[in-house]
Amino acid sequence: MPSEGLLTNLAAMRTELEKSINHIQTKSAVNWDEYFMLQAIMASFKSKDPATKVGCVFVDENNHQITFGYNGFVAGIDETKLPWGKERTLPLEQQKYGYVVHAEANAILHSNHKLSGATCYVTLFPCHECAKLLASSKIKEIVYLQDKHAGTESNRISRRIFDLTGVKYRQLSLGEHVLDSLIAHFTDAFYRE
Q1: How confident is residue 192, by pLDDT bands cut at 50, 70 and 90?
Q2: What's the Rg (C-alpha) of the chain?
Q3: 64: Cα separation from own chain's centroid
Q4: Which of 24, 48, 59, 70 is a good FRET partner for 131, with 20 to 30 A between their CA atoms?
Q5: 106-145 pLDDT tens trace
Q6: Separation of CA 159 from chain center
Q7: Residue 81 in this model has a pLDDT that exceeds 70
Q8: DSSP state of 182
């Protein structure tokens, strides 16, 4: 039979352990929006575009990832034969815009599942061409990180398409705790003794 002192020490250790676990859970936990936006950011890292890296993730109503995409040239093309330039004064055939498939379009094209009712997490608010594809796919909601083209004609058309088709959209701001969690995670993973 364990001594009373040992039981007291074990109880104290358990209390401290529970405090540590609760601290870790509350300090490092991200919500689903943050989690999937981080996935979209990770998808954007696959883009070879030197100027604009966009990623997206489609998620069903049960928070299961359906598909993902990133902006890049049409699959199968030798990328060394195409321009990454974005100088709008040049002919379209000398700009990336004539050849790049946007992240949302890539995700839709490569999905093996219906996207009806899904949520799209995307790092940049969709252009009007992607808005047409997204609305036609019957997605429920767009959650975006940046909107650097706010106020442009394409942006206004996107919003109009979403408003007329009932697709909700909202901007997500990643809180400081997300960055703190990432730093803590990577610090722990790379600098263990």
Answers
A1: low
A2: 22
A3: 14
A4: 48
A5: 999 999 999 999 999 999 999 999 999 999 999 999 999 9
A6: 20
A7: yes
A8: H
What one-letter code names the amino acid at 160? Answer: R
The pLDDT of residue 24:
47
Of 142, 102, 101, give the one whose Cα is nearest residue 118: 142
Name the active-site residue from 93, 104, 141, 193: 104
CA distance 131 to 160: 9
- Neighbouring C-beta atoms of residue 98, cutoff 10 Å: 11
Nearest alpha-carbon partner for 181 in 30, 13, 49: 30
| Topology given in CATH for the domain delimited by 31-190 | Cytidine Deaminase; domain 2 (3.40.140)
Polymer length of the chain: 193
Amino acid at the residue 40: A
| Structural domain boundaries in the chain | 1-29, 31-190
What pTM, to 2 d.p., does this model score? Answer: 0.80
Residue 104 catalytic? yes
Torsion of CA 73, 79, 81, 84, to 10 degrees: 60
Angle at 144 between CA 104 and CA 177, to 5 degrees: 130
Q: Which of the two residues, 75 and 120, has the higher pLDDT score? A: 120
Which residue, 148, 76, 84, 80, is CA-closest to 109?
76
**Coil, strand or helix at 46:** coil
Please name the residue that has the structure tokens 């890296």. 53
